[in-house]
Amino acid sequence: MSALLRIDRRIVWLIILILIFYPLIYPLGLPIHIEDLTRKYYQAIEDLQPGSLVVTTIDIEAGLWGEQGPQAIATYKHLFDKEGVKFIQVSFYRADCAVLFETMVLSEVDRTKKEYGVEWINMGYLEGKETAMSAFAANFMYPTKDAYGTPLEQLPLMKEMKSMEDVDLFITVQGSGYIDTCLRQLPIPYDIPTVGATMSMGVPDLLTYVEAGMVYGILGGLSGAAQYEYLTGKPGLALRGLDSLSLVHIFLIALVIVINIVYISTRSSGGRE
Amino acid sequence: MSEMLRREIPLGLATIIIAILLFDHYVFIEFTRGISAILQDWAVVVVATGAGIGVINIVMRGIGNIQKREAYWYLEIWQIVIMIIVAVTGFIGVYGTHPTYEWIMKNMYLPIDSSIYAMVMFDITSSFYRTFRVRSRDAAVLFVCAIFTMLYNAPITGGIAPTLLIPGKWLLDIPITAAARGFKIVTALGIVGFTIRTMLWHEKPTIGVVE
Predict the structure, then answer these.
(1) Radius of gyration over alpha carbons of chain A, in Å?
(2) ipTM
(3) What is the DSSP letter of A114?
(4) What is the average per-residue pLDDT within A146-164?
(5) Scanning every residue of chain B, which has its alpha carbon at the shortest distance from the alpha carbon of A190?
(6) Are the C-beta atoms of residues A243 and A27 closer than 8 Å to each other?
(7) pTM score, whole prediction
(8) Which one of A48, B50, B80, B165 has the fewest beta carbons within 10 angstroms of its own beta carbon?
(9) What is the three-class DSSP state of A143?
(10) Chain A residue at shortest CA distance from B33
(11) DSSP conformation class of A145
């Protein structure tokens, strides 16, 4: 049994790889639980009335795509399904975030459901980080052109949306490192209701804003995305990956408990570690 | 005069700009709002110029390494070639919509960047089961908290045994959120203190003044 304490890490890695790939090929359909904050995220978008104005920041770098890509895709599918809801999308974190939005998120939604320029606009990536956020929040015309080079004054939606004061809901999908910056510059100074999606480890950051009443709903990591897909009735990447996530978690919990039982019994019997 | 150019003028400019932006944040006057908007626009230009300078820096450094035949110098050639290809295809037509550019982002950049993040899995998992051993009382507390947090994060837990979610949820809602809140407050106070020190000329290196 004490050999378990010196288990070759490659065996652990192999088991984890099997537990990841097997459910992707043969889905198990393990049960999931819908959290309150995920339900509130869904409800905030579902309750949008025709004519509502929304700003979204999809700032996902490529490395986080596996965990947050499904969040962005599910959010945008939901927004495109909401008749009469209008939105502006903008990225501030890195240029590749805007490119990923264009190539990976927009390619998954049915763009025919909304007319570009009238019901939605893609501002692309705005350089300048926090300064750009502040400038954009005060005046949506600040970039002068959208992501495709069209002057903003030619787009009818810009007559309705001039600054964050006109916005009814702010949605942000970000890695954890930038979410504070985004929230303090965009929705909070204008008291805009906000929902946010972030990595699992970024949820405590967003929870502080939930406690303060500034953020109403959270999607946390792949699990949150899967719950959201379930609520919207559009299963996707996240629900497919949830079985793998569950199995790996349970395996690691069981492994560390067993190793500690062996460790304690070995130590108490005077054996070597 | 050169001393004033090097020291007083940059520090004075920084003080004036910070004062205008702070005043504009709290008091609404059309005149200062206009100046504040112009200052923020120029700040965006400066930051964007920094990105361009970064590209030039990478190319110059790469060319230097190639000329000197430093270790792995041939990878510098590969880096510069890829950078040029991506930049050119990105600029062709409407930004970021050229098929070659999309192909590179979708089939090269995204998988490679995701793989680098995914490789962390190997380190984390082997560290996890080797680190979480009950060697002491503190380690035991950490172990128990880790188990409950992982149970809370495991999607299946809520589906088969919702009761097991309660300790993990309490950990997340109370001590972890409290720590995160404390961290945010401390960070905010640090930023305020740093700004005041910059305005009072106590933080000179930030402005580029080295004495």
Answers:
(1) 22
(2) 0.83
(3) S
(4) 92
(5) B25
(6) yes
(7) 0.86
(8) B50
(9) coil
(10) A138
(11) B
